[in-house]
What does this fold into?
Amino acid sequence: MGRRHPDWLKVKIGGGENYVKMKSILRKSKLHTICEEARCPNIAECFGSGTAVFLILGDVCTRNCRYCNVKHGEPLSLNPNEPRDVAESVRELGLSYVVVTSVTRDDLVDGGASVFYETVKEVKKVNKDCLVEVLIPDFRGDIDALRKVVTSKPDVVNHNIEVVRELFPSIRPQGDYDISLKVLENVKKIDMGVKTKSGFMIGLGEKHSQIIRTMRDLRAVDVDFLTIGQYLQPSKQHVTVKKYYHPREFDELKEIALNLGFKHVESGPLVRSSYHAERAFRLN
It folds into this structure.
């Protein structure tokens, strides 16, 4: 029998007019969302309110992080119409704030940065007043690839640190903690006007002191917005949950983070990187 989640992790099952509309438009345009691919617990709330995180560059990742439910392996070829398809779907859904993310594509010369660039440009061209947040991979630390994304003028650049430094070797073996910090630092060096954001999961065996150190590291590179959420095991093949944090513990971490200087913090058991993303931007 699988491990039973605490009561505070129970979520609403999907439904409602907006939820159905969102699913229909996504299927018609053959677009992917990280909400579906990663089995996000907030999909009912977000789809129901007309919010989605568009997943570009296909739905197969070249990396295999031990917490992630996105497929990994050899990706298919890119869809040349994807930037326009995303922009048209945003228009059809009437969205005022869009999050665009991707699988990691280490097989591409620029890691897919050019597709991010075209997608941001296309969304803003078709949807004049729409705000765009990008949730990007590390591009293997390639500053030119990062510059390409930032010069497309997204309103927020998000790159998740995901876990504390000490867990990278076992949980994110193809990632690098210091490269991720450098990505976030370099965004501001390229354009000081862009808001930066990062997030991580807890419940994977990290120590409290390591959580605090991670927050300090993110503030040291001037990250504006922070998200902290509970890790939930997607399947038996993924790393197991070591601890379920109580909502009070998330509140305590939020207070610490705000005292460290983050402009906005979302911290809770069901928080994911794009949860209440529009609110974070508009309040700051």
In short: The mean pLDDT is 87. Strands lie at 32-33, 53-56, 60-61, 71-72, 97-102, 131-135, 156-158, 195-202, 225-230, 264-268. The first helix runs from residue 17 to 28.
